[in-house]
Structure formats: structure tokens, C-alpha cells
Specification:
Elements lengths: L1 E2 L2 E2 L2 H9 L4 H23 L1 H8 L3 H28 L5 H18 L3 H30 L3 H27 L11 H27 L14 H37 L3 H29 L1 H10 L2 H6 L5 H16 L1 H12 L4 H30 L1 H8 L23
Antiparallel strand pairs: 1-2
Helix pairs in contact: 2-5, 2-6, 2-7, 2-8, 4-6, 4-15, 5-6, 5-8, 6-7, 6-15, 7-10, 9-10, 9-13, 9-14, 9-15, 9-16, 10-11, 10-13, 10-14, 11-13, 11-14, 15-16
């Protein structure tokens, strides 16, 4: 990007970004995503306490994650498709109501069925927020979609990283009932959604009044058969990414406690370090994909994680923290590029494609958590890290992705 024949300085670039007309909406979307994922991260962060409270085994922990992830994944493409056809202004607040009720139940339920119902409601809230908020992000970002998606997604990663830390500070010293204090964050989420609802209401009103200015006929960049093939390749990449992520998000604290004898509180801090790395990687992935192409980012991000994941089970505690940070940073930078690449394959189905890939990612994570829980019960917690270390090598299939020119989506 140039100004008067010269490259922009960092300050000029930041000023150019901040003065975007929809920048306040993007920040509100980032905040809403952050608060939503903060609430969701409470579920996995409380697992050690929940396991002790209800005397659960690893297979039951995996089942809880499975129910949550399936609730979040199955409904996402359905919600995205429905909102593509019939947009709803208040969809985001409705999803947050479901999440809030689930969090309140999770704080007090003392039966397995009650816990499953609680995480199911939290999953429904996630299934509502992610595809719709991602679609609104693409609409608001327009020419800066890579930047917009990174801002949106880094909000979720940041919230997910803060959640375990807050659990360590608020819940761990006092007990699971203190999860109820996290409803303060759902109240903040409702506040963050107000400017989004206001902007989206004006946007939909303008669409109804001037449909010709918002409709652009775009042909598919690839044939239908090749589009299906490419989507299958992308799903395989997501599979490799989220199986490895599931091994960290669900069982990393147990791994650290068992192998290195850490306390629950200290293990949460190590989990916080990992999730911060995913936030940093997400922030980088979108803009680099805008500049150098989505395929290159996807290739380097997933396959480049392998050296770190392969070494991680065999090193000391300090190196474990370093390698987990590096693996999280590399792997998480892939998702903004993957999502935008998929949106460019189907440019008129933003909500559906967002829901499909967010949902598939959550579904893979849930199934992987259940399978890994059974493996941990049978072979030990360290065994799952030796197995999952090879998953990033699947990134080699990124060579089959065609190069797509970064395209403009309908306004």
C-alpha cells in the first residue's frame, strides 16, 4: 500500500485501519467473541475440579466435551444457512442467553445429566454466535476481510486464554460454585452486542432499500466437482489441526500435573501460556494471507507445527512451555486463512461456510476429546501426546490446494 509514492509508516497504517468506517463494529465483534469464548473456556478449565467433585474418569470428561462440541458443531452450518437466507438482527443476544443459562447450570449441577445439559446449552450459544458474527465481520470488513477476520478471531482466542487464568484466580481457591461470577462477563457481552445490533439493523435496512448496491453476481472460482474436492482437503487439514488442539485444550493440565507434579493452579497458568500463543498466531494469520495468499499460510502453519509437537513429549517443563507456545502460534495462524479461503470458494454463502468450518472444527475437537479420554484411561495421559504429535504432518496435503486470487465478496 502506498501514499504519495512512498510506503506507509506503521503509524500511518494504524491510522488508516482505525479510521475504517466499520472499525468500531469490528472491535465490538472482537469483544463479543472474546467474552463468549471466555465463558466457553470455563468448561474445560474447571475439568480438574469437576472430576474431583463428581468422581469422574477421563472417559466421562471426554463425553462432556463431546456433548458440548457436537451441540456447537451440528447447529453451526444450519444456523449459518438460515441466517444467510433470513438475517436476524437479534441472533447474537439470543445465543448469549443460551450460554448464560448453561454457565449458571454448570456452577451448581451435581449430576452427570445436569452437567451434560449445561454444556449443551453453552454449545448452542456457540453455534449461534460463531457463524453469524463471522458473516457480519466479513460484511463489515469488506476490502480488509483478512484483517477483520483476524481481529474477530483473536478476540475469541484472547477470551479463551483469559478464561483459564480467571478460573485459577476465582474458582480454584473457592470451589465450582464460583463459576456463577462469570455471568458478569455475559452481561458485558450483551453490552458489546448493542453497537453490532445497531449497525446490522441499519445494514439490513439499506439492503432492503437498495438491494442492487449489495448484490453482486459472482461465479464460483472452481468447478463444482473441484470445489467439493478442495473443501474435503480443507476439512482434512482442520481435522489434523483440531485433533492436536483437543489434546492440549482438554488434557494439557492433566498431563502437566501427572508428568511434572504441578498444582491445578500452576497447570492453569501453563494452559494460559498456550492459549495466548493461539491468540497471537490468529492475529498474524489473516493479514499475512491477504498479502501473500491463503495457501502459503495454510501450508506453513499446519506442517510447520510438526517439529514442535514431535519434540514436546520428550522435554523438560520449561521447554514444554516454550514448545507449546510455538506449536500454538504456528497452528492457530492457519484458521483465518482457511476460513477466508473457503469463503472465496463459495462467496455468496458466508454464514453457511463459516458455520460449516467452525462447526466441523468443534465437532472434530469433541470426537477427538472423547477418543483421547479413552486412550488416556487405557494407556496413560502421556501416550496421547506421543500419538497426537504426528497429526500436524497431515499438513502436507495442503500442496493439493489450488492457488486462489484473493477476491472481493458481495457487499
Amino acid at each position: 500500500m502506498a501514499l504519495s509514492g512512498k510506503k506507509l509508516t506503521l503509524c500511518e497504517k494504524l491510522k488508516d485501519v482505525v479510521t475504517m468506517p466499520a472499525f468500531p463494529v469490528l472491535m465490538a465483534l472482537c469483544a463479543a467473541h472474546s467474552l463468549n469464548d471466555l465463558l466457553q473456556s470455563v468448561i474445560t478449565a474447571v475439568y480438574p475440579m469437576l472430576k474431583d467433585d463428581l468422581n469422574l474418569d477421563f472417559a466421562q470428561i471426554g463425553l462432556i466435551t463431546l456433548v458440548y462440541q457436537i451441540a456447537a458443531s451440528i447447529f453451526q452450518p444450519v444456523v449459518g444457512y438460515a441466517f444467510d437466507r433470513r438475517p436476524t438482527v437479534y441472533s447474537l443476544p439470543i445465543g448469549m442467553i443460551s450460554t448464560s443459562v448453561g454457565i449458571a447450570m454448570f456452577a451448581f449441577c451435581n449430576t452427570m445429566s445436569g452437567i451434560l445439559a449445561a454444556v449443551f446449552l453453552v454449545g448452542i450459544g456457540s453455534a449461534t454466535l460463531h457463524p453469524e458474527a463471522s458473516r457480519i465481520t466479513s460484511l463489515a470488513g469488506r476490502a480488509r476481510r483478512g484483517f477483520a477476520q483476524s481481529i474477530f478471531q483473536v478476540g475469541g482466542n484472547f477470551g479463551g486464554s483469559i478464561g483459564p487464568l480467571l478460573v485459577a484466580l476465582i474458582v480454584a481457591p473457592h470451589g465450582r460454585h464460583y463459576v456463577l461470577w462469570f455471568l458478569i462477563f455475559s452481561t458485558l457481552a450483551f453490552a458489546a452486542m448493542r453497537p453490532i445490533v445497531k449497525w446490522y439493523k441499519c445494514y439490513l435496512s439499506d439492503v432492503r432499500q437498495h438491494p442492487e448496491s449489495h448484490t453482486k453476481s459472482l461465479s464460483l472460482p472452481l468447478s463444482k466437482g473441484k470445489t467439493v474436492f478442495v473443501i474435503c482437503i480443507i476439512m482434512l487439514l482442520i481435522f489434523s489441526k483440531y485433533v492436536y488442539m483437543a489434546s492440549i485444550s482438554s488434557y494439557y493440565t492433566f498431563y502437566l500435573i501427572q508428568k511434572f507434579g504441578l498444582s491445578v493452579k500452576m497447570s492453569q497458568i501453563f494452559l494460559f501460556i498456550f492459549v495466548v500463543s493461539t491468540a497471537a498466531g490468529t492475529l498474524v494469520g489473516g493479514p499475512i494471507g491477504d498479502r501473500y495468499g491463503r495457501k502459503l499460510v495454510i501450508w506453513i502453519s499446519i506442517l510447520g507445527t510438526a517439529p514442535f509437537s514431535l519434540l514436546l513429549p520428550h522435554v523438560s517443563l520449561p521447554l514444554t512451555a516454550v514448545l507449546s507456545f510455538c506449536a500454538g502460534f504456528m497452528l492457530s495462524s492457519a484458521f483465518p486463512a482457511i476460513l477466508l479461503y473457503a469463503q472465496e470458494l463459495l462467496p455468496t454463502k458466508l454464514g453457511m461456510i463459516s458455520g460449516l468450518f467452525f462447526g466441523f472444527a468443534f465437532g472434530v475437537g469433541g470426537i477427538a476429546s472423547a477418543v483421547l479420554g479413552n486412550l488416556a484411561d487405557t494407556y496413560g495421559i502421556e501416550a496421547i501426546y506421543n500419538v497426537c504429535a504426528y497429526m500436524p504432518l497431515i499438513g502436507i496435503v495442503a500442496c493439493l490446494l489450488p492457488n486462489l486470487k484473493n477476491r472481493e465478496l458481495p457487499k
